[in-house]
Amino acid sequence: MKLALLGVFAISSLALSAAVFSSAASGVPPENASPIYGVTIPDGYRDWKFIAPAQEAPPLDELRAVLGNDIAVEAYKKGTLPFPDGSILVKLAYKREQSTEFAPATVPGASTTVQVMVKDSKKYPDSHGWGFGRFVNGKPVDAAQHETCLSCHVGNVKDHDFVFTRYAP
Amino acid sequence: MKLALLGVFAISSLALSAAVFSSAASGVPPENASPIYGVTIPDGYRDWKFIAPAQEAPPLDELRAVLGNDIAVEAYKKGTLPFPDGSILVKLAYKREQSTEFAPATVPGASTTVQVMVKDSKKYPDSHGWGFGRFVNGKPVDAAQHETCLSCHVGNVKDHDFVFTRYAP
């Protein structure tokens, strides 16, 4: 992760495995940070705890899984809403492919997007405390795509602190 | 987990979060252990690391996710085959349900089964080192169902140490 940051603000997970940076205040986002929010892919997220799977219908036709850092997972387990500052959720999305080994199964193909939500009520007062990042091949997509995040979350899941995913048993 | 065991053999994950017991040698499996193999649901598995999602077509119509203990995840990351003794994989399966909040998404409904594979080459010499457990509501299903595990894994994934799931990126 590029550390040449101006106006850096870092949140670390309990495991010190995550670092999310933003220089939104400076107006110069780091190369790998999302437009609007300045969210980056947190280090170590692939080893975070599992929250739930999902499937997205065609045309995207994806298998998905949401992982969370310790703060987010603890909030899920305790039913804490809103999610506390420092909560980070990462959605991993894959093209859904037919298994060549077991006919009834579809399995993950290529990674399509990694999507990140970071809770920081001071940093993101205009988006209900959430910062969003949507990444393809490790790079953030454009501002136009990021402008769609908030309205969809606000329109559909305002009663669950703007988070779609529930904790699977 | 019931600890009134005869002829106990325990494997602990690196995080000391897993314990799998069996008294197969004594012929008296503990109440919650699978027939044939004596595998139980490992403590703490729900916090294990995420390996991959999958979908199972109707009639089961499930969303699934496989989690692994540290030994198994390390083997996946390094491409170690066969999986070393102590590896444990847990598949969580859920009824696939339409999301009421986002039309293109299907999400986990009720838990259907929890399925466990334990690698112990000394304990399971007759099943390529793997012990199997299939659980509904925390209780193992019957011997007839457990008799189907091995043949399906042997018939389809003998070149991947009898494990279907691959590590998703």
Automatic annotation (TrEMBL), chains A, B:
Keywords carried by this UniProt record: Signal
Pfam families per the UniProt record, alphabetical: Cytochrome_P460 (PF16694)
Keyword Phosphoprotein: no
Signal peptide (residue range): 1-18
ATP-binding found in the keyword field: no
Positions of the Cytochrome P460 domain: 42-165
InterPro entries: Cytochrome_P460, Cytochrome_P460_sp
Gene3D superfamilies reported for this sequence: Cytochrome P460
Superkingdom assignment: Bacteria
Protein's name in the database: Cytochrome P460 domain-containing protein
Native source organism of the sequence: Rhizobium lentis
